[in-house]
Every structure is written in C-alpha cells, then in structure tokens.
Amino acid sequence: MGEFRDHALREFEVLGWPGEEESQKWICDNVLSLLDVLSKQGHSGSSVYYLLELFDQLAKFKPLSPLTGKDDEWNNVSDMSEYKLWQNNRDSEVFKEADGKAYWISGRIFRDPDGGTYTSGDSHVPVEFPWTRPESEIVDVPADTDSQELTGDISELTKVKSIEDEDED
Prior knowledge:
alpha+beta, four-stranded mixed sheet, 9 strands, 19% strand, extended
C-alpha cells in the first residue's frame, strides 16, 4: 500500500520480524496501520517531517510550547503523596509543592560505571516559568558509591554534558 509500507516490511524482514512472538506481531501490525494512514494523507517531503515531529511530541505527551505554570496546568495529586503536591498536566515530570516551588524530576540522571542509569530525589531541579524542558544532565557516579548515599550533596560527583551534547561527540 505504498512506499512507507514497503520500506517497513523490508526493514522488518532484515530484523526477522515479526517472528513468532505475539507482542512483536502486534507492534508490527500497528506500525503498518499507522504507515497506511500516513500514506493515504499524501504528504510532501517537507510536510511529512513536520507532521512526524508534531506526532512524536504529542504521542509522548510532551508539550508543544513552554509551560506557563498557570493554575489550569496543575492537577492535585496530594492523595498519592504524603504532602500537598500538584503535577503539571502538560508535562508529567513537573511537580509543584504547597510552597509554590516547582521542580522537574528528571533534571539529573545518574550513571553508574557500567552504564546503568537511574533517578532519585537528587534528580529534581527547580523550574521557573515559562519553562521548556532542557536535556537532562548526566552525572557519573563513581564505582565505590552506593546509590543510597546520594542524598543532598552531589557536588563531588562528575557532572557530564547533557545527553544531547554526548550525542554530538
């Protein structure tokens, strides 16, 4: 049903997909369905990239413009917390406490020497509005550091470039 489908089927074949695994069959079928819709829409080379960028952002629940911090952007999630807490309804990684201070829960991502990554309370970074999500900061954790020890002062850890900066290297 078009170039998109043909390309996908060739790529699936190279990977041996969908194979016998039901979940992979389901994913491949869903990808083909989305590509069929895209094919029917008749986009040009430039409009398809614009469409895909918008689709990618929205399908990942990312905002298309900076967060404002206005009252209508917040959902009260205090019932899931030990204290008064609001979650931003445009970016689910942004929270606000009773004092009005907002923070992003993935501002710092810690990386073990083996490459494993994780977040913790020390991953939180303050948010000031209007706010657009930057790339997370990667913080290398020495081999002899227990992740449970990371509470508060992380100044001694090696701060690395953002993920985006690392991809450019």
